[in-house]
Amino acid sequence: MFVEVTPIAIENVYYKFYVILAVLNLCNAVVIWIFYPETKRLSLEELDFYFARTYGANLGRVRARADVESEMKVEDARMGKA
């Protein structure tokens, strides 16, 4: 749809179309910044646990997450991180 609208918009509003796109991109960036969770430096197990806990999934891997979490706490304590 965007490809179909672009030539018509450029014909009718000229450079203002680029301003409209810039504003929409800025709005998208703000929404992503506010509502998307930070997932940097998390393991796949931690991500699985986060999303399952957040969205209420009751998966077998998530139930096993308690075991993984306790192992992680033991490992962190052993390495002096906690």
List the helices and strands and how they pair.
Blueprint: H1 2-13, H2 16-35, H3 44-55, H4 60-63, H5 65-79
Short description:
This protein is mainly alpha-helical and 82 residues long. Helices cover 77% and strands 0% of the residues. It has helices at residues 2-13, 16-35, 44-55, 60-63, 65-79.
What does this structure look like?
The chain has 82 residues and is mainly α. It has two domains: 2-35, no CATH class; 44-79, no CATH class. Helices cover 77% and strands 0% of the residues. The chain contains five helices and no strands. The protein has helices at 2-13, 16-35, 44-55, 60-63, 65-79. The longest helix has 20 residues, at 16-35. The model has no long low-confidence stretch (mean pLDDT 80).
Task: Please tag this protein with its features.
82 residues, mainly alpha, 5 helices
Number of beta strands? 0
Number of helices: 5
Q: What is the CA-CA span between the terminal residues?
A: 52 Å
Q: Helicity range of the residues?
A: over 70%
Shape: rod-shaped
Order of helices and strands: HHHHH
Secondary structure category: mainly alpha
Q: How many structural domains does the protein architecture include?
A: 2
- Residues in β-strands, percent: under 5%
Mean pLDDT: 80
Largest sheet: none
Low-confidence stretches: none
Radius of gyration: 22 Å
